[in-house]
Design a protein that fits this description.
Elements lengths: L17 E4 L9 E6 L9 H16 L4 E6 L4 H12 L4 E6 L8 H8 L3 E5 L1 H9 L2 H9 L10 E3 L7 H10 L9 E6 L3 H13 L4 E6 L7 H11 L8 E4 L12 H14 L8 H13 L7 E6 L8
Parallel strand pairs: 2-10, 3-4, 3-6, 4-5, 7-8, 7-10, 8-9
Antiparallel strand pairs: 1-2
Helix pairs in contact: 1-6, 2-3, 6-7, 9-10
The structure holds pyridoxal-5'-phosphate (PLP).
Pyridoxal-5'-phosphate binds next to helix 1, helix 2, strand 7 and helix 7.
């Protein structure tokens, strides 16, 4: 049967490159390479491109009149979605966590430039919305923020982690030209790692997928991922391990140590990295290498982009 290849937008650079990385002393017995999803597109890159692919296809046939979502004020997903909606002239309303800052950093400035309607909500309300997306609908109605009839609105969860995103991520595994022994990928909601692992299981590969969780105390993500897998009609992937030991001080806590580690890896491999996700993934890779667990293995690191959030 002919395989239907994804119809990616013309300005996306896909398949993304897989680059070999020179092994430093601490990885002398490990073969390292990296999947450069950060290079897909200047604004819709990394796992955001993968997550938004199916949605872009659907919008080509029937675009919504308005989109509503939520995210942190440096959210890479919000940034990518903001650009996409701007490109397609679809109004986007975003509930943003925390107070409105006096001076906008680059993510917020870009969102403003792309005409995203930003509504800042306090942390408690944001958490309630995160825990139950129904609260987003209630809040938006209560504040009278909608400009369209509710039936024509697309509601997207934080980080875009839904079945459509999961399906888009699964497709990325088709681009691998060799079967790695181990894949490392950073995890926020874990949707990206789940999609990669589900695709690996489906192919029957022996590859282990190590999802390096960047949030502190996020043991419950296995439950939300279990729900997502169920919605996607997929069994829990046997290849997937959630690794919680490298969350450091917690989500987006960019300590001087993290900055130092980022500079070290960037110099080592001449790669652009961001401090929230990829540095923690690399810390996990280094610790696994130090322990000898990856000796003689082909290890693939997944660069999930997010470089815009670092300015
Ligand atoms: C750069 C980057 N890497 C990794 C992730 C984590 O993705 P997920 O929420 O699918 O685990 C995100 C969030 O979308 C991200 O922006």
């Amino acid at each position: 049967m002919a395989i239907k290849h994804p119809q990616y937008p013309n300005d996306w650079q896909l398949p993304s490159a897989i680059q070999c990385l020179p092994s430093p002393d601490w990885a002398s017995r490990v073969s390292l390479s990296i999947k450069r999803d950060d290079t897909i597109h200047p604004f819709i890159s990394g796992n955001k491109a993968r997550k938004l692919y199916s949605l872009i296809q659907r919008w080509q046939v029937s675009p919504p009149q308005q989109v509503v979502t939520m995210g942190g004020n440096r959210s890479n997903y919000l940034h990518a979605l903001g650009y996409l909606c701007y490109q397609k002239s679809i109004p986007l309303l975003a509930l943003v966590r925390g107070h409105e800052p006096e001076h906008y950093h680059s993510t917020l400035s870009d969102l403003k430039r792309w005409q995203v309607k930003l509504t800042f909500v306090d942390k408690l309300t944001f958490r309630q919305c995160r825990e139950n997306f129904e609260n987003v609908r209630l809040l938006v109605k209560e504040k009278d923020l909608l400009s369209e009839a509710e039936s024509s609105i697309e509601w997207l969860p934080e980080g875009g982690s839904n079945v459509e995103a999961f399906n888009g991520i699964m497709l990325a595994v088709d681009e691998l030209t060799q079967i790695p022994d181990v894949i490392f990928v950073p995890a926020g909601t874990g949707c990206t790692a789940l999609g990669i692992a589900a695709a690996i299981d489906k192919k029957g590969w022996h590859t282990q997928v190590i999802a390096v969780v960047v949030l502190k105390g996020a043991e419950s993500i296995s439950q939300s991922l279990g729900k997502l897998a169920k919605q996607a009609n997929t069994p829990w992937p046997k290849s997937l391990t959630l690794e919680h030991r490298f969350c450091d001080k917690g989500f987006a806590k960019i300590t001087p140590e993290i900055k130092k580690q980022k500079a070290y890896y960037e110099q080592l491999w001449s790669l652009p990295l961001e401090p929230v996700y990829s540095v923690k993934m690399l810390n996990a890779v280094k610790a696994y290498c130090d322990s000898g667990m990856l000796d003689n293995k082909q290890v693939l690191l997944w660069h999930t982009g997010g470089l815009q959030g670092d300015t």
